[in-house]
Amino acid sequence: MLRDIRKNYQRDNLEEDKLSQEPLDLFQSWLNDAIQGKEEEPTAMTLSTISKGFPDSRIVLLKEVSASGFVFFTNYLSNKGKQLGEDNHVALNFFWPKLERQVRVKGIAEKLSEQLSTDYFNSRPRDSQIGAWSSPQSREITGRKELDQNFEYYTAQFEGKEIVKPATWGGYLVKAVEIEFWQGRPNRLHDRFRYTLNESIWEIKRLAP
Predict the structure, then answer these.
(1) Which fold has domain 2-124+167-207?
(2) pTM > 0.70
């Protein structure tokens, strides 16, 4: 029975003396732990946008994190790209089950500059670059064959040439306004701390689980 599936979290704790004043410093430390701990997809994050009053969520990959925020890349004409053009308020969620940790982020998404998007595109494997040209992301297609034919077409088109970034593809920077860190603890009495940006200062509060 689903109701009988339980796990008693007891790997670690999160106390006030482990917090940093800057939440992105703590996030970077936790991300490093996830990478070193061989989490299956340490950079995977749930990105939630807003569509006609409903939240719309999917998994994307974090490609950069800094004091400025969280960076991911996509097709601007995809569902999420169109939604971000209408409302750029987003939520991110990271879950690292081996470490029994979760991070929740609320923020504002802004397009990266064309140059930064191009620089990242140029660093991708060639097949991934061709894939960006081949997929009309989120649009209905006739079948798998259409994707395979597109891939073959663009492979031939760019044979022996540099692959340029599609104008409809690029990155977003999510500037956080709230970040919550969750550490699993025994008996469902988890540790939760919420950072809220007040002007340029992060305010920190412990939350009940």
Answers:
(1) Pnp Oxidase; Chain A (2.30.110)
(2) yes
